[in-house]
Each structure stands twice: as structure tokens, then as C-alpha cells.
Amino acid sequence: MSRSGSTSGRANSIDQPGAGSCSVLEVSFNILNCTVGSGILALSFAIKESGFGLGIILSIAVAILCWLALYTLIVTGQKIGIYKYAILCEATMGSFGFYLLNGMIFFQTAGACITYMIVIGDTIPTVLSILGWESSRQWVIFLSSIVFILPLLFYRSIGSLARVSMISVMTLPPILFAVAIRGFEYAPEHKRSYDFVGNNVFPAIGVMAFAMLSAQTAFLNFATLAQPTKKAWAQATGIAVSLSWMISFVFAIIGFIAFGEDVQPNIFNSFPLTDGLINAGRGLLGFSMFLTFPQAFYPARAAAHKVLGHEDNVRIPTDKQHVYTTLGLFIPVLVCGVFVADLGLLYQLIGGFCSTFLAYIIPASCYFLVFWRKTPITFNGAILTGGHGSHDGSDAQLVGEHGQDRYEDDEDSLEEEQEEQGQEEEERLLKQKLARERKSDLALEEAHSATPAAAAHLNRNHGHYGAISSQSLSLSTSESAQSGVSLADLAGTSTRSARRRGNKTELWLDISAGVLLVFGVFVMVLSTTITLRKMIGYV
């Protein structure tokens, strides 16, 4: 077997739909673990910046848009038989899309990894000092990352972390409980404003987008589903996004009520270092960051592999490439985590620029480039279906070196198959009816040419009364001919009807993709501009 064939087989066995073994619940926990990361700590700060009333409304809108982006991405990839985010962008936007996406994923996820290390540095040293082990922030980040994080980074599939993700998510209720119980104790010491609109709305949306983002792991998690259907994916993402919003913003609201205008980007920094219950929460939060770190690291490494040419639609990195890239990415992230400490601006910059691109702009752009283009999509000598096509994925196939589509969504297409079978049966019955009518008309014509008496007899049996004139015979013959034409046309009627229905994109997805695109561009431009102005000292 050739090396390429072997590699392709390995790729299909790892990250192609149908090869996974995770349930809907396991995948939802993986996605949840990706979204409920260090960004949750800044959401109280985001509510303060955006205003209490508008902040709650925006949080719901961001959650809904994140779910739409996850669903839209899979529908788009399924349409053309591509299940990797970077390859989808390259097929639809060329090399520009490939490098744009991988650059955004790299900086977004690497930035998220840095924030996890900053949180570890904010929490673990405090806990260790209580236990009598005095240590600096830098050494805690360095040693704990080597011991607890690095071993989790050498798996190839994100599905291997499903149980780790479940453990990480289980630490969240005690953390929320600690903040909720102790936060209200400190509420009288702080002023708060419940103004509907705040003074820094758009950067706050960037922070929310950062906290809720999981689009970069969409295809990775979809591939791990044991039954990779659109219905199962909608359920998994719906559960994950709903729980993520509930956990994140209950946490955020409690933090805002407790500390008001004094709330910090890391809410635990708003508490005194002498609070025992909060320190226990700090310990659990640091432990959770150890387990959450790989969820951000894996997409960053995948982006690096693609840019370096180690990975494409049919190839995965060799073992050496996998190890070297893992270490080559981990080391600079570790260095940044050791020396960078400002969470607030990091959240706003990454969220406002990278997160909005990944969560809204790129998924919507890919959708429109696949479903609204009139010419087929070609990629590396392969012809991919494109244009106004169906959403069922039945047309999704790669021609040429890529072979046929690797995945057929049986559950999603069952209803359509039943409808097609019903149309075929209706077509068969109509054909029989037209054939009988045509046979009867021919017999009537022959009898008329033979004897008038026989013609009258057949005419009565056929439902006509009186003699047949030459005009009526002419009309009958003409109608018979027309019936023949209709019979010929009928053979393709059902297929053409189904094709016309398939060529109409679903209206709700079209509208959703449009909202994603407009919202993403608007927030990205304003949020990034405001944050950069703040960073360079103009504001």
C-alpha cells in the first residue's frame, strides 16, 4: 500500500464522520468544555461594560448565533463532502480563505490557551500559599503546565478527551456555588449600576463571543459522533450551547450583582485572598483550566499543521510531525502565559477580532459561497457540488481523487426517500391510467375506420353517446397524441419536482447566515477599533 493511501485511511479513521464512537451527550460535553473556559471569568466584566439590561439581551443573541454557526458549518460541509474547517474555506475562498481561517484559529485558540495559563497563575499560587507552599506565579504556571497539561496534548483526536471534559464540567457547579454564596457577602461594599446600556458595548460583545466560541471545533466534534446526522448534531450543539449560556451568565450575573462597578476581568481577583470558600473555588478553577486547555490547543495545532503542509483533506501528520508541532506550539504559549497578566484587554482584542471572524463571518461566508454560487466548486482537481443545492447532503460528493462522499445521513434522508417512493408510485399509477386511455382511444379509432356500428358500440362503452364525427375523432387523436407527450414528460416530473425543491435553500438558514455575516462584520470592526484605541492610549 502506498504511503498516501495509508495516510488517507488513517485520516478517515480519525476525523471523518462515521468513525466516531461518542454519544450525543458526550459530544455536547466536549463542546461545553470548549465554551466554558477562562472566558466565563470575564462575563461579569462584560455585563458591566455593556450595561445590565442590554448585556443580558446580547448574551442570549450571542448564544443563539453561536448555535446557528455550528449548525450552518456542518450543513455547508456536508453539502460538498468536506469535514474540515480549513479545507472548506480553501474550497470556497481559495488560498486566501485557507490562510485566513488558519490564522484566525491559531491566534484565537493560542490566545485562549494563554488566558488559561493566566488564570492558573491567578488561582493556584493562592491555594498553595494557604497550604504552606509559597511559590511565584511564574514557577507555578511553568511546572504545573509541564506536569498536568502537556501529557493531555499528545492525543490525535479530540474525542479522546470526552471523559476529561465531563470531569472539567463537573467542577463548575461548586465554583458557581462558591461565587454565589460568598459574592453576596461582599455586595454591600460595592456600588453597582443597573443602567440598560453601558459605556463599552462592542468590546463587551467581543468578550461574550470569546466566551461562547466553539465553531473552530465543530468538525472535530461532529466526526466523533457515533451517529453523525444533522439531527444528532443539532441536539448535541443545542444542549451544549444552552448549558453554556445558563452556566456562564448565571455566573456573570451573580458576579456583577456582588461587585458591580468594581468587578475585575477575572472575577476571583475581586475577592479577598483570605476567603476560605473562595480559595477552594480558586483551586477547582485552576484544576478545571488544566482540563480545558487541550480543547483550545487542539484546534491551534491543527491550524499549524495545515499551514505547514502536514495535513489536508486526505492526509494527517506523521507521528514525528505531530510531536514536533505539539511541542513547538506549546513552548511559546507557555512563555506568553508566564509573562502576560492582563486578561481584560486580551479578552477584548481576541474576542472582538478573532472570535467574531470564526463564530460569525467565516461560517456565513462559506454558506453563501456554497449554496448561492451558480458554478460548481472545484478543489485540487476535484469537482464539488455547489450552487443552489439541497440541504440533505445527498449531493455531497468529491469526484476524482477524493472518491465518493464518505458519509450519508440516513436518518436525515429517510423522510425524503419516503416522499420520493410515494411520488414514484403516483407516477406509476398515472402512467398506467394514461396508457389505458391511449389504448382505448386507439381501439376507438380502429373501430371507426372499420364499421360505424362497431364504432358506436365502442363509443358507448367508452362513455360517449351518439355517432363520432370526423372532428371529434380528430380531437380524440390529438388528445391521444398529447397524452403520449405528457406520458413521456411524466417520467421526469417527480425528479424535476424534487430537484426544484432541493434547489431552494431553506429560508431560515439563508436569513440566519445573513444575520451572522452582518452582525459579525459590524461587531468586529467597532470592537477591534475601540480596543486598539484603548491599548495605544487614545482613550
TrEMBL record:
Entries under Pfam families matching the protein? Aa_trans
In what way does this protein cross or attach to the membrane?
A: Multi-pass membrane protein
Which residues are in the Amino acid transporter transmembrane domain?
22-374
Transmembrane stretches in the record are: 27-47, 54-76, 139-155, 162-181, 201-226, 238-260, 280-300, 321-340, 346-370, 507-530
Q: Which GO terms describe its molecular function?
A: L-amino acid transmembrane transporter activity
Q: Tell me the segments the record calls region Disordered.
A: 392-428
Recorded GO CC terms: membrane
Name the major location: membrane
Q: Which UniProt key words apply to this protein?
A: Amino-acid transport, Membrane, Transmembrane, Transmembrane helix, Transport
Give the superkingdom in one word.
Eukaryota
Q: Which family does it belong to?
A: Belongs to the amino acid/polyamine transporter 2 family.
The name on file for this protein is Amino acid transporter transmembrane domain-containing protein
